[in-house]
Amino acid sequence: MTAQTSTPPKELVTVLAAGAVVLLVVHGLGRFIYTPLLPYLVDDGQFSAANGAAVATWNYLGYLMGAMLAIRWYRINQIRTLLPVALAMHVITTLAITQTDNLTLISVSRWLNGIANGMVFVHAPALILEWLVLRNRASKSGLVYIGVGLGLLLSSGLVTGSANLLEGAGRWWPAALLSIPLAWWGALKLIRLDVPEVHRDTTGKPTTTRLLDRASVPLFLSYAGAGLGYILPMTFLPLLAKLELPAGHWLLDGTWLIVALCTIPAPWIWNRLGAKIGDLSALKLNFLIQLLGVLAAVILPGGTGLVLCALLVGNTFLGTVLLTQRIGRALHPHQGPRLSAAMVALYGFTQMVGPWLTKQWLDGGGTLVSAFGIGVAALAFGLVFVFFVPRPEDWHASNSGAGS
Length: 404
Prior knowledge:
By secondary structure, the protein is mainly alpha-helical. The protein is 75% helix and 0% strand.
């Protein structure tokens, strides 16, 4: 299909903004608002820190299941139907959690919310990437993840701003009410995108190629390490600050604010860096910086380690996502949303394992700071496998030379 090169700047901005908004909703107001909320919910007596980790695990299980559903339903016409359904599920489950202090009901709500999150996090960027590829604008794809950074900043402000006004289940009300108009606007814009079904074989059926091969397997393994490595600070950093710092210290809320502020420019930074030195080289640097961030929380107790962790992880984890997704599509251009869904599913599985391992560690008498060592090991694992990922142009040249 011939690429369209005359896309008006206003249309491009609107599409990227719509994608950013829906990611803000499901990630900022759905998933990651739980991180700054967790210390308050524990203090309110809604549940213990260990049970809070279990609730997080249920959310990540839902995220994994949502991504797996997206592997099954990845066609463009299916995305148009399921994207608004998933956003509606986010709104309903967030409203539901404002009404209960029951641990089982909280877990169920967070599980269903995770399913919605996983589907939207696959479908929205994948749909936008296909739209951008048709217009020779694929290099802009990472900008959609700015919505995650804005969502983190917004979640930090909502939690801190309402901390003395709300308690228990009521702490979810700001996120629930704000989600409604944002989800509505984002869904309306995205389901109207002009993205035809492409890559059909001689029978007219959409092309499906192998998902796993010598090029994609190491990329999947590195992404698994990234998922497990980043999720510990992104779930427990404010709680770690509460355990290590005195009452009233600015970093009790400040760690999450630092993460949020750092994530906003991160997609732009890694987009530019990937374009300048190559996505694969940028990914190696990304893993190294992120690893040093989590390591700082382990070896530098107190404010210094917390600030370094917030700065370095906040500046990198979205870069890991956008660079890996772009490399994957470059290696397998006919996979599109299916490849994205598989990667998010794997990421979701490792994210689910992280809080579960933390709960086991805490129940066994371990400390939260030592549990961050799991993240260090996972990121080191991921960094190693990035070096086994071929450059897409080399991979295609070797396959073409072999006649494949």
